[in-house]
Amino acid sequence: MIPLRDDIPSLTTPFVNYAVIAICSLAFLAQQTSTDQSEGIIASYAMVPVRLSDPDIVPVIETQAAVRTAQGIEVVNVRQELGPSAVPPWMTLVTCMFLHGGWMHFLGNMWFLYIFGDNVEDRLGHFGYVLLYLGTGVMAGLAHYISQTDSPVPTLGASGAIAGVMGAYAFLYPHARVLAVLPLFVIFTTFVVPAPVFLGLWFVIQVFSGIGSLGVGVGGGVAWWAHAGGFAAGIIAAVIIGRLPMGHGPVTARRF
């Protein structure tokens, strides 16, 4: 399911949400100019779990590649060392959430943030939203780290922090509705679904995918536990920050 819009109007301009989207966009464009991921921006600013476990270690990624030889095509093992981190390993828990692994990863994340982030910022205030975004992003990174403490694979993306925003949204707007589209091959069906159902289903998928990825390495390249951990952290953060005197109260939903 892909959200198209929700039915909760914003009362203020979500400056922080726009700023996060802008920073992620600039960082992603900078990534496009970095041709060597083992030495460039990803190696320098992505979170590598094994570096958190041992800051002095040199991460080595082992992959397989098909090469042409005199005997034909053969699959060989390739060992690739990651270049040094540009910041202390603990700081990559923050820097990694502004990087992305590709166009679909980037566009999908920014769209979800655009849909749900403005309303959460509206309720928590600009400063409260900064605390929520960065805090849940770090907690999401730690959740992924706990699941793969020895992994040398760089972890990057705003998905964990955005999952935190989604968790906060589900708590703060229990009566909101989302207009979503369900792609069925060449048919696209739109329907209205309660926001907690839409977001709750997304969370359940992340949890079961995370359970399925246990013991199989990188989990298919997706940090499922970062998503689940960020979502849970977002609910907790919304409960705490929502008690502070900032932001606005509930607003009246608009009709689709």
Automatic annotation (TrEMBL):
One of its GO terms (molecular function) is serine-type endopeptidase activity. Keywords: Hydrolase, Membrane, Protease, Transmembrane, Transmembrane helix. It comes from the Bacteria. Its EC number is 3.4.21.105. The chain crosses the membrane at residues 12-30, 90-115, 127-147, 153-172, 179-204, 224-246. One of its GO terms (biological process) is proteolysis. Residues 90-242 form the Peptidase S54 rhomboid domain. It is found in: Membrane. Its main location: membrane. It is a multi-pass membrane protein. It is an enzyme of class 3 (hydrolase). One of its GO terms (cellular component) is membrane. Belongs to the peptidase S54 family. This is Rhomboid protease GluP. It comes from Neorhodopirellula pilleata. The gene is gluP_1.
